[in-house]
Amino acid sequence: MTAPSTTAPARPQRFGYLAELWRRRDFAWYTALGNLRARHSNTFLGAVWWVLSPLLLGMVFLLVFGIILDTRKGDPNYVGYLLSGLFAFTFTRTVMTSGVQAMKTNAKLISTRQFPRLLLPITAVIEAAIGFLASIIPFFLIVGISSGQWPGTYSLILLPIFVLHVLFNVGLAVFFTVLVIPVPDLGNFMQFLSRIWLYTSPIIFPIDVRLKELSEFWFTVLSFNPMVSFLGVYRGALLGRDIDPVHWFGSIAWGVGLLVVGVYLFIRNETRLVRYLR
Amino acid sequence: MTPRPGPVSAEETARALEQRGERVERRDQRADRAAPKPAGQGGWVRSAETATAQPAIVARDLKVVYRTYGAREKGIRNRLSVRPAQVVALDGVSLTVNRGEALGIIGANGSGKTTLVHTLAGTFPPDEGTVETFGGTPAMLGLGVGFIRGLSGRRNVYLGAMASGMRKAEVDEVIDEVIEFTELGDAIDRPVATYSSGMYQRLAFAVAIQSRPSMLLLDESLSVGDEGFKQKSKAKMEEILSESGTIVLVSHGMGRLQTFCDRVAWLDEGKLVRIGDPERVIRAYRSHLGVIAPEVEDDDDDAGAGAFDQDDADLEFDTEI
Questions:
Q1: Which of A219, A57, A8 is closest to B119 using CA atoms?
Q2: A40 to chain B nearest CA, in Å?
Q3: Which of A273, B89, B246, B285 could form a cystine bridge with B56, CB 3.0-4.6 A?
Q4: Mean pLDDT in chain B?
Q5: Are both B190 and B284 inside the same structural domain?
Q6: Does residue B267 share a domain with residue B297?
Q7: Structural domain span for residue B180
Q8: Residue B31: its pLDDT value, please?
Q9: When comparing pLDDT for A256 and A15, which is higher?
Q10: pTM of the predicted model, to two decimals?
Q11: CB neighbours of B52 closer than 8 A, spacing ≥ 6?
């Protein structure tokens, strides 16, 4: 008789788990591509929407905040400032909900196949990451045309910060999956949370300029916002601005830290999470 | 929960049958071994049945409880309770499925059949109890196995195979064979959203079978599809059994179960009532439902291969789409 290959309640070994995850990377990659392909497959413009959606989103924000509310305040390249923050933040905002969504829409797959469930939120992050990269193209076009600033060697910084951002987003997506699947009510808070996050991040305006009156304490609290670090580095990569070394440090700490915490929590609770999905 | 047809419990029905001289196997040590099947019946006799049984799936004391925040009991205290309402889907089910054996699962709607198959497949962890599988990973096939509907059948074959752990390059090697098995022709490159339910099932079956699983668990899926494909999928399942694989089959098609399965398990409200010889268990189940009096002989075990698909009329999609 062969040894038992599966004992249902047993938790998978942590590093064996990660090895299995890596072994199935094709699945994550092709599922993400498949979802992307399917998403706009029944629209007239199809893949054009990948570039068009962020473009329209940027124009709305530009209209409301740049022109109507006049938050420009003397920034010579406000268009670049706003869009770089907005597109990077949209990547993060998307994964806050899409990781959970990936688990829910694939409940069928979860019920019929054995595989590391961590693949599903990762798939959602891959999808959002491709969407973000697609929005970089219209970004450089708009900024180049409106301000004459075209990408230079500083744009190479985009590579490391993008990797850190992806790590952070995987951690975030997975972290929220662990929270929201057992308590669905938390899912309803996501849209409010993401809105608060948007307005407390240096996206529409630099926080330090806008919130001068804020006490030292709250200012310190706000500087722990991971988006402050990520956007600080992104603006160096996308607009060639000076990067505060603290922002590099913050990006690395948040990216690696949240990834480790999120993945650890997910693997620990995977069995429990699956129970909530059936 | 489905209302019961009569005031009697399943246990009582079975007990009454026993008193009348019907031999219905109890859920005990005896039932955990494969019951030898009378030769000649249904025409599906395999040598493995009488050989010493080798377990493929061993389930012990499975308990599964669904929790939901909706549909609370009446009363202000219940409605304000933070604790979710609980539905016990499986309640202390123990059984063993042997190699080379086909086990059928019957029971009323909501009796826990689908939950049991999912738990045996190892895809849903039970709240209590254990499932051990020996010699292979079970492949699970239910209605609608999670295709991306906007993608073509071909791409979904890739995704399905990769979900079972294959690399892209490995799928490349078998893709033509799988597509040929589906007999979908040019439709394979159309979005799955445009498929009929029969075409959908062809695809699902082909994907599930492509890894040549030694354990196949099916949830109400075989009866969809046309005549030709049904025969084809049945032949494929026979092949698995003859290679001493294992099949667990949920169905409401009693005739199909009786001819195809070596044993049948009857679930009622999450409990295993009886397991054993298909004819006897099905008769006990039917008399419990009040469909056929226990004295009346089954009228569908003479049909042989044809019986496999004769129960399409009472096929239901209570599981999922």
A1: A8
A2: 9
A3: B246
A4: 74
A5: no
A6: yes
A7: 141-212
A8: 38
A9: A256
A10: 0.78
A11: none
